[in-house]
Every structure is written in C-alpha cells, then in structure tokens.
C-alpha cells in the first residue's frame, strides 16, 4: 500500500489586502456615520450586477460563526467562506481621481467586469 504525501506548499493561503488609502476612508466612513469603532468591515459578494456578482461593503458588530477574520491596516475584517472563494487575493483600494470617487476592488479572480466596476464575473 502506497503512502500519499501531501505537499503543504500547494495550499492556497486566504488573503485579502486593503491599501492604506482605503483603510483611511473606511475609518472616515465609520466616523461620519457614527458607526462604533468596535464594528468590523464586512467584505463580500452577492449575485447580481451586469456581470454576475456584485461586491458588498458593510459593517458588522461581530463575526458570523463561519466567517474568516482578518486584521488588515488596523481594521478588523470579516469575510464569509463563499465570498472568500471569489475575493481571495483581492485588494480593496480607494480612488478619488477624475474617473470617480469610491472604493475599488482589484480582484485577480474576476475574468470580466462591467464598465462601472461594481460587478464582475468569474
């Protein structure tokens, strides 16, 4: 009987990134909307949008039972497992350039995006 050895180096690490500019804006949104400092940022995806999925940004007081928890740029972040499948490796940034102002998801898993950048397909 042959023994199967698993190579742990092939294991994919769950990672989400947030730029310092986006983290600063998240903190500003919390202050401007009287959201308690203890609330975490929730990142997720939901079905819909012109490309199949839409991004979700929200705040939650505590994690759900199956959430993956991250600490990024001084922010606590919750992501549910289904969303993490689509968001793994994604960087949340903030743009205030000529093309508009708002949060931008740079998602390596998105194979197509809509013109507004708020929805994607895999």
Task: Characterise this structure.
The protein has helices spanning 20-32, 81-87, and strands at 17-18, 40-47, 53-60, 68-72, 75-79, 91-97, 100-106, 112-113, 119-121. The chain is α+β, with helices and mostly antiparallel strands and 122 residues long. The protein has a single domain, classed as Hypothetical Protein Aq_1857, Chain: A (Sandwich). The strands form 2 sheets. A 6-stranded mixed beta sheet has the order 4-5-2-3-9-8. The protein is globular and about 35 Å long.
Helix content: 10-25%
What's the helix count?
2
Instruction: Report the C-alpha radius of gyration, rounded.
Output: 16 Å
The CATH architecture: Sandwich
Mean pLDDT across all residues, rounded?
83
Runs with pLDDT <50, length 5+? Answer: 1-11
Identify the CATH homologous superfamily.
HesB-like domain
Number of domains: 1
- Roughly what fraction of the amino acids lie in strands? 35-45%
CATH class group: Mainly Beta
* Strands in their spatial order, largest beta sheet: 4-5-2-3-9-8
Helices and strands: which structural class?
alpha+beta
Name the descriptors.
six-stranded mixed β-sheet; Hypothetical Protein Aq_1857, Chain: A; disordered N terminus; alpha+beta; 122 residues; globular; three-stranded mixed β-sheet
Note the topology:
Layout: E1 17-18, H1 20-32, E2 40-47, E3 53-60, E4 68-72, E5 75-79, H2 81-87, E6 91-97, E7 100-106, E8 112-113, E9 119-121
Parallel strand pairs: 1-6, 2-5
Antiparallel strand pairs: 2-3, 3-9, 4-5, 6-7, 8-9
